[in-house]
Amino acid sequence: MRRLPGARPARSLLALILLIPFIAGCSDMKIEDFRNGTPKLELADYFAGQTVAHGLFEDRFGTIRRQFTVDIQGEMDGDTLVLTEDFQYADGETDQRIWRITKTGENTYEGRAGDIIGVAQGRAMGNALNWQYDLDLPVGDSTWRVHFNDWMLLQPGGVMLNRAKVSKWGFEIGSVTLSFHKPAEADQSTAPNAAD
Q1: Which option is the CATH number for 30-190: 3.40.50.970, 2.30.110.10, 2.60.40.1930, 2.40.128.20?
Q2: Residues 151-168: b if buried by 16+ CB within 10 A, e if exposed
Q3: What superkingdom heads the lineage (predicted)?
Q4: How does pLDDT run across 16-47, given as a tens digit for each residue?
């Protein structure tokens, strides 16, 4: 039987398919990669007071399915950072999540919220934080239990970028992208100079 030019034997193709998950696993970021990243991210300092985020959800094909804004109020309750997140979606839907986050070690955090299953585990180094957690996500008339691999990266000027891969049964179903900023800092940076 003739093979098309450039075609691989079935055995080579099978080996390549089996190798893909290994290659993908090796390319995963590690929190240690950001050990020397600046500015240093301290969650309690960054989220004190009001923070605003703008975000979107893309499905696994790259189609934007939802856009939203989040108004976040942060305060300390003893050793616990309480983040009240009020979501406003482009289609008019609203939602709220309240996080209770505790620093458990030099580089580790735990987080709890009403729709989070169990405890979210976070690790921080340099300008980065990686959260891992499971969440019950409303989809139409049903609810899907999905896994979030969530990366937050603080940038100069107080902007924080957030990218989360969302998966179910180990298969990626989409991603969430967010940009956080502090309204007070943004207002100061755009305000006219008093000397003008």
Answers
A1: 2.40.128.20
A2: bbbbeeebebebebbbee
A3: Bacteria
A4: 344 344 333 334 789 999 999 999 999 999 99
